[in-house]
Amino acid sequence: MEMANCRKCRKIYARIRSQICPECEKEEEQLFSVVQDYLRDNPKAPLTQVAEATGVSAKKIMNYLREGRIEVAVPVLQCDGCGTLISTGKLCEDCQKKVASNWENMASSMRANIPAPEAQTSDGPKVTMHTRKK
Ligand SMILES: [Zn+2]
Ligand SMILES: [Zn+2]
User: What is the domain partition of the chain in residue ranges?
Assistant: First the structure.
């Protein structure tokens, strides 16, 4: 087991995946749910108001937004693709579509490279071949 110092309270704890100890993690989750609750009641509140009302720092809320966990009515994040203002996640809708269609193109060109499965199977035991070209 890996021991680590909690990034928040500096306590030594057995690290699983988080940078902070389980106690701080719980605390963080609580903060998040406060923000989440507030937004549920005030879906139109801008970021600054949310931060003020919940006592959670705007920076933290920005992180939640980046992670796509919450959404605010007034966009405060910049799209990684084109820099336009977005309200949640990393990409604006246009860039998301672009990325999606890129994936679609890649996927279909990959499919084109895969030879069609043999129409006839021999009498022997069935062996499924997975041919995949990169
Ligand atoms: Zn801690
Ligand atoms: Zn964009």
Answer: 75-112
